[in-house]
C-alpha cells in the first residue's frame, strides 16, 4: 500500500494500487484522475518496516565491527604455536652455523687478535642443544685462540651451583663464569683439545699455569666424566693428569668418597675422594680447600683462575 500526505489538511491518503485503478498502460493526465482515499492514521506499516530495516542494518553493522575487533585481537595475541624471539634467533643462528666460528681458535684463525667476549657456535644446526654462546677468548696466552670454559676474576658469582646450572653454564662471560658441561663436552669430545689452567696468586707473584693435552669430557649420559692425557709445560703440579672421574654437584654425588664432596667443599668438580685440585671453591675464603695442592692450599691465596681450551 502507498500513501501520500496532503499539504492542505495534513491528512494521509491511500493511493490506489495499479491493480485497482492505475496501470502502467494508463497515462495519467491530471491529478484528479487519481482517487485518494483518506485514512485515519499515517503509514504505520511503512514506519515499522523502516524501523525493522534499521534494526537489521544496525545489527549487521555491530556484528561486522565485533568480527573485525575479534580478528584484529587474534592477530595481536601470541599463541603457543608462535616461536619466541629467542627461539627464532636461535633457529636462525643454527641454520647458518656452518659458516660461523665454532670456538675462539677459529676466531683467531679468522684474524681476531684481541682478547675479549665473542659469540661462538659449538653445535651443529641439527643438534637439539644448538644455541650460540658468549665466551671469553684469550687471544694472547700461548699462541692465542683459547676458549675459556671457566673464569674467575672478581668473585661476583658463586660456584656452589646445582647439576643443571653446571650443565647449562652460569655467570657472565666478561666476568666470572662456567661455560657449561654440555658446551665443554661439545667443544672437546673427539677434538684432541688442550687444557690450559691458570691461577692468579694473591701475593702478586707470577701467574701460575699448567698445560694438559688430550683433554675431553664425556656427555651427560656418563655424568661428564673427564679424560686427560699427557701433561705439558707449567710451573705448578700436574695431578689433573690422572683425572678420570665424573662430575659432581651438591645435588648429584658421583664421587668415590663416602661423603658428598661437592656439598662439603661448596662447589662442583670432578671429585674422587675428594680432591687435590679444585678451582670452583668459595671465593677469597678459608672454606676453599686446596685449590691446587701444594702451591695453593687455601682459597685466600688465590685472586683469579681460568681454564682455557683449544
Ligand atoms: Ca660420595
Topology:
Layout: E1 2-5, E2 12-15, E3 37-38, H1 44-76, H2 85-95, H3 104-109, E4 116-120, E5 133-138, E6 146-152, H4 163-168, E7 170-171, E8 177-178, H5 181-188, E9 193-201, E10 208-217, E11 226-227, E12 231-234, H6 261-265, E13 289-292, E14 296-298, E15 302-309
Antiparallel strand pairs: 1-2, 2-3, 4-5, 5-6, 6-8, 6-15, 7-8, 9-10, 9-15, 10-11, 10-12, 13-14
What does this 3D model show about the protein?
There is one protein chain. Helix content is 22%, strand content 23%. The protein is α+β, with helices and mostly antiparallel strands and 310 residues long. The strands form three sheets. Strands 4, 5, 6, 7, 8, 9, 10, 11, 12 and 15 form a ten-stranded antiparallel beta sheet that branches. Strands 1-2-3 form a three-stranded antiparallel beta sheet, with no helix packed on it. It has a two-stranded antiparallel ribbon with strand order 13-14. The relative contact order is 0.10. Mean pLDDT is 84; it is low at 20-29 and 76-86. It binds calcium ion. Residues 253, 255, 257, 259-260 line the site of calcium ion (CA).
Distinctive features:
310 residues; alpha+beta; ten-stranded antiparallel beta sheet; three-stranded antiparallel beta sheet; 6 helices; 15 strands; 23% strand; elongated; binds calcium ion
Quick take:
Keywords: Membrane, Transmembrane, Transmembrane helix. The protein is of the alpha+beta class and 310 residues long. The protein contains 6 helices and 15 strands.
Overall 3D shape: elongated
H/E element sequence: EEEHHHEEEHEEHEEEEHEEE
What is the rounded Rg? 41 Å
Ligand list? calcium ion
Mean pLDDT comes to 84
Q: Tell me the number of strands.
A: 15
Helix-strand category:
alpha+beta
The tally of helices reads 6
Strand content: 15-25%
Poorly predicted regions = 20-29, 76-86
Please estimate the helix content. Answer: 10-25%
End-to-end separation in angstroms reads 98 Å
Main sheet properties: 10 strands, antiparallel
